[in-house]
Structure formats: structure tokens, C-alpha cells
């Protein structure tokens, strides 16, 4: 019996080191996470403080970054790690993505040497948890409309505003917060990043509950009420909205691989199920309609994996564009959620229970389809690339 990877010869496209990283993460996920993930999802909890050091020991936090205790792995290897983490649950991959691709990447790209030395080694080890404050209650797809403001008061900065849907927010030790900064001598405020220890007076985080998606993930709202920060809290190289958007591109890249991990877990679970489930005195797998569904899903999963690896190779050569990342994110999330929904039909009533991961993945993918740019936003990115006409406004 063939797997999708065998059908498309995926392993032949990977180096021995990339396969070893993928397999190591897969073993960790099966041993440490899968036995508990349905319970965490059902109870809406995730033991971030306990799991983060274990992820750090594996070198998964900021693994694509160089120096400061980071693994310096290839982009493709990072993507494969994301795939295996999301095969367990999107919430696990989200934690790693926010820590490494958003919070740590922001400090690595735009921080001072002092900030890098202070935060990155401990974040890479999982000793410090980070979050990334960009999205606001009224500004998701349009982050340029944010209302959070930072003003100078002597040598200090004073931060006011709020952020919403912040992964890791209520357990974070440090938040990278984006705000319009009113700077003396400047005609208009511009977006700057700030490194904010979460024990700073005026900082508060409220966990968002009653979620139907990403339940095994910590999501919070952040509030800043006259949060006073020293002058060196600003990320000195952050210059405008392009800075946080560069971090988002890193996170989107991980999703290209990650969403396919969720889809693969759905498909392999379903294949195992239909081979043993008997309907009208023969296995469900022996019916033509079942095989047609499985074949179509395997094709879309395999094509998605080939695209992901191609984009990984482009990124490793520093040749990838934001438009290509949008194409990958749109394709992987759209096909993954379609596969999850189709798999649920083959599991019948069993598919709605937490005894199987399929509907849990489908619920999570509803969020993955939306965050880091909705499917519609990425369609417009591609539309602009193809026509040179801007349809955003």
C-alpha cells in the first residue's frame, strides 16, 4: 500500500538531513503530543510552559535563524518541521511559528545587538515565550489602520492601545508590539516595533475562550494603558509597516507546509478507517466512490507538497517573493480544509468525535485559512501580480 509521499517520490527531493529533521519532529509529536492533543483541544488548554523547553531542546524555536542559540536550519527543513507539528495540531505549529517566525524573527531582523543577546538565546531554548502584537480588534487584513500609539515622553516611550487574537499572549514573557510612533521632528507617525516585557506596568493580557477552533492554543487580547518603556525598547531597524509584514511572510511560509501536515493526518487516518470499516458486507475502501475521493485527495495533497518543496528551495536560495508565498499559503490552506471536510464524510458519524482527528483539524484549518492573510487577501495579491491592477481599494 502506497503513501502519498511514495506516490510522488517526495523523499527523493529531500536531503538526508532534511529527512532526519522531519522524522525526528514526527517521532516527538507521536510520543509527546498526540496522546494528549484531543484532551487539550476538548478542554481548551495547552501546557505552553511545559512544552516550550522541549521544543527548544529539539532546536525548533527560531530554527531557521542564524546565531544566538538558533539552529540555522534551511527553510525547507523548517517547513518540514512545521508539517509534522501541524500533523498533530495546528495549535502546536502556531506556537512554534509565533515564537520563531514572528517574535524572534522581528528581534533578529530589526533589533539591536543588545536586544538580540538579551532575548534570542533564551527564546530559542524555550525559557522565554514570546508573542507578536500586530492585529487589532478592528484591523485584521488592514494592519495599517492600527490605532495603537507610542509617544515620546522625555527619554521614554509611552504605549497605549490594544491587540487581538494574539497567540501565546497570556503566557508570554515578552511581546513584540507594533504601533504608530509619534516622533519629534517627523511630519507623520510611522509604524515601529517595541520589545515589551509583559510584567511592565500597564500591560495586561486576557485569554480568549469559547473558541471553536485552535482550542489547543493560547489566544489572548492585549491592552496597553500608559505602558512606559525605556528608549532602547524600540526595535531600531524597524521602519514602517513593511517590517511587521516581513515577519508575516516568514510565518506564512511555515503555514504552506504546516497545513499540508494536517491534511495528511486526515487522509492517512481516513485510509486506515475505510480499510477496516465494513458497509454492506465489504470494506468501505472497496467502493468506487470511496476510492475516487481518496485518489482526488491524494493528488491535491501531493501537488501541494511538491509546491511547498519548490518554494522551500527558492527560499533557501533567497529567490522567493511575497507573491509566491501567497500562492503557497492560499493553495495549502484551501486544499487542506477541503481534504479535511471530505475525509469527515468518509468517517460518517465517527468523524465528528475526538476519537479521530479529522474534524479537529477541519476546525483548526478554518482559522489557518484566515490568519496571516485571509484566502481572499492572497487571491488579490495574486490578482495584482497577474494583472498589475490593485483591487484592494
From TrEMBL:
Transmembrane is among the record's keywords: no
Acyl-CoA oxidase/dehydrogenase middle domain: residues covered: 131-227
Cofactor(s) needed for function: FAD
InterPro entries according to UniProt: Acyl-CoA_Oxase/DH_mid-dom, Acyl-CoA_Oxase/DH_mid-dom_sf, AcylCo_DH-like_C, AcylCo_DH/oxidase_C, AcylCoA_DH/ox_N, AcylCoA_DH/ox_N_sf, AcylCoA_DH/oxidase_NM_dom_sf, Glutaryl-CoA_DH_mitochondrial
Reaction equation(s) it catalyzes: a 2,3-saturated acyl-CoA + A = a 2,3-dehydroacyl-CoA + AH2
Ranges where the Acyl-CoA dehydrogenase/oxidase C-terminal domain occurs: 239-386
Keywords noted in UniProt: FAD, Flavoprotein, Oxidoreductase, Transit peptide
Record-level GO BP terms: fatty acid beta-oxidation using acyl-CoA dehydrogenase; fatty-acyl-CoA biosynthetic process
Domain Acyl-CoA dehydrogenase/oxidase N-terminal: 15-127
GO MF assignments: fatty-acyl-CoA binding; flavin adenine dinucleotide binding; glutaryl-CoA dehydrogenase activity
Family (UniProt): Belongs to the acyl-CoA dehydrogenase family.
Name of the protein this chain belongs to: Glutaryl-CoA dehydrogenase
